Amino acid sequence: MPRRARSVSWRRLSSLRVRLIAVFAAVALVTAVSASGIAYWLNRDAVLKRAQNASLNDFRGALTRTVSQLPLHPTCQDLSALAVQVASSGLAYDVVVVDESLPDCVASSDPIAFTVKQVPPALVAAVNKPRETGPGNPYAYHLYWQRVNLAGPYVVGGTKVAPDGPTAYMFKSLQNERADLNTLGWSLAIATLLALVGSALLAQGASATVLKPVRRLGDAARRLGEGKLDTRLDVEGNDELADLARTFNRTAESLSEQVAELSAREAQSRRFVADMSHELRTPLTAMTAVTDILEDEADSLDPMIEPAVRIVVSETRRLSDLVENLMEVTRFDAGTAKLVADEVDMADLIMSCIDGRAWYDAVELDAPRGILAVVDPRRLDVVFANLIGNALKHGGSPVKVKVRQDDDAGTVVVQVSDGGPGIPEDVLPHVFDRFYKADKGRARSEGSGLGLSIAEANALIHGGAITAANHPEGGAVFTLTLPLVQPPAPGPEEAR
Amino acid sequence: MTSVSYLLLIEDDDAIRTGLELALTRQGHRVASAASGEDGLRLFKEQRPDLIVLDVMLPGIDGFEVCRRIRRTDQLPIILLTARSDDIDVVVGLESGADDYVVKPVQPRVLDARIRAVLRRGERESSDSAAYGGLVIDRSAMTVTKDGQDLQLTPTELRLLLELSRRPGQALSRQQLLRLVWEHDYLGDSRLVDACVQRLRAKVEDVPSAPTLIRTVRGVGYRLDPPA
How far apart are CA A157 and CA A162, in angstroms? Predict the structure, then answer.
């Protein structure tokens, strides 16, 4: 069982629907992710740069404006005032001013939050380091900046106010920018997700438009296979699926026509055989009526004539049997054979079959009385006559008939066995075939070759069966199994 | 030993008719024959035979119709010649009032046996009479009267009633009745019994659809219940 489940789930994974969804989702994902990614990075760059440059330029401008008010040797108070003044111009940033000559002075626009300690050492070093002045570089000290993470994202910038004077640092919070960028990021992510979902739904829809007709085709093909030859598909649209549907319809039409033709021909030939057999009856009835007379008078005929008369008599009887058998066979073939059922004691039935043909000395019957079965006595008489007759003719003594009731299976089992040579192995599978005679050379054998096939058909019409086998101790054994009670027949019920 | 019986054979095919006439005559019967239903009915009225052998497939009026018409006025034994035993023919034939049927092609000795069996059914038995309610069966006179009125029964119907009434309260199976009444060689057609019982009930019972005298015993057959 586990193997079955695995193969089914593999099939599901590789199904059309899943493939389509996977492809659509991949395309959507790649597109959305690339687009979002590019958008986010470009935006981030621009936003941050803008914020930074704006504040740094403002810082520089404000410093330039206010530095002239600074005395040559500023006090701590002067430095604080400078810090506050620069910080309070325009954009919101904080300023810290430091002077080497006043190491204990904390000049900050917000002394609690920002001091020189927050400035990264690398920036301090860069700011304090003089540079070579030359044609491309008019100033020794420049404005440097760095992004740091204090309690949030900050950009820190620093520059020397005067070549030998204090150094000013500014702290600009990039929290707002980061918040904006985060919002952007989330929006893009949600959009990507929606794109994925949308693509999956689209894929589902697309696969449905293909799968529904495919499934309809599959159902129609199955119905066709079951024999409903009038199955047709509705042709919708003009695409390849519509073409497929049209082809299917044409095929089904052709198939149903062929089947109808074959059935008609078969019915016709069956009718022909039935009519022929029926027509044969009439002359046979007249001939049968007089064969007894011919037989009785044959002794008193001219010895030259007598054999001729005897031939007519015997051949008439043979012909009569053959036509009877043929009619039985056509009835079975046409499905018009009917069961005239009655409850019968099996021992009685077999006994009267044996007695009626004066076989009582030749057959050992082992049949307990009281086994009652609902059967057609005429048909079973035919079956037993055939089986016992064959045993006597082709088998050898002792011919035994054994009847048993099988309560578990609800059947009665009749075994007809003989002590003869048995049935050759190559003949055994064909023994119930029509016109199959075991000994091909014996063309003049009494039987028509239909006896066993009719016996089998009679057993089948009762819902039973006959099997042939060789007894391990020699001789052939034919076993007839019949249900004790018939299933309700569809034919007309006996009137009570 | 029965006296020579006078048979009327109604069969349209010339060869069959000639052949059967020949065979039956050799077996000791006196035979008159007709080639159509109309001729048959005419001969029947003129000749008053003891038994009719009737082919069901006749041109003009078919065998069933002939049977029905004869039954309107007469209860003499009728044996049908039919094409096959499992066709609807048999049931219809039995309902038209035939006593028995044989299947073509028929061996003359089989037909002879049936004829003699049917004729035997009409033989008198030396027994007293029995009465069941308004029904009186006189075995010696071979008559049955219901409430004083003579009942017209065919020999088969009469024999069936006699066999059932010989064993009052005892259920008889169809196969037993076939052997007792129809005397067939080996196991026969149970429909013969059913059809005959139906016809008998129609004549003997007060309410044929709710029989009180001849009862069906499910799973067994039929039984005559004498009224309490």
Answer: 16
CA distance B15 to chain A (A): 5
Least Cα distance to B138 among B165, B114, B111 occurs for B165
What is the reported pLDDT for A493? 44
Residue A445 clears pLDDT 70, i.e. is over it: no
Residues B225, B228: Cα–Cα separation, whole Å: 9
Average pLDDT, chain A: 83
The yes-or-no verdict on residue A431 having pLDDT over 90 is no
Tokens coding B35: 């080639």
Cβ atoms within 10 A of the Cβ of A266, count?
A: 12
To the nearest whole angstrom, how far is the Cα of B194 from the nearest Cα of chain A?
Answer: 7
For residue A30, give both structure tokens: 């790649």
Residue A486 has pLDDT above 80, yes or no: no
CA dihedral A43→A45→A47→A51, nearest 10 degrees, is 180
Q: Note the pLDDT of residue A56.
A: 86
CB contact under 8 A, A289 and B198: no
If you average pLDDT over residues A326-332, what whole number do you get? 83
pLDDT band at B1 (very low <50, low <70, confident <90, very high): very low
B-chain residue closest to A352, CA distance: B186
pLDDT-derived band at B186, boundaries 50, 70, 90? low
Q: Which of A296, A337, A342 sits opposite B175 (nearest CB)?
A: A342
pLDDT reading at B142 higher than 50: yes
Mark out chain A residues that contact chain B at CB-CB < 8 A.
278, 281-290, 292-293, 296, 320, 327, 331, 337-338, 340, 342-345, 348-349, 352-353, 355-356, 377-378, 381, 492, 494-496
List the one residue out of A54, A47, A50 whose CA is nearest residue A91: A54
Write down the pLDDT at residue B187.
Answer: 63
Instruction: Decide: residue A199, CB within 10 A, 0-12 exposed, 13-18 middle, 19+ buried.
Output: buried
Nearest residue to A286 via CA among B112, B9, B22: B22
Q: So what's the pLDDT on residue A384?
A: 93
The ipTM of this complex is 0.75
Q: What is the mean pLDDT of residues B64-83?
A: 90
pLDDT tier for residue A488 given thresholds of 50, 70 and 90: low
Q: What is the mean pLDDT of residues A7-33?
A: 78
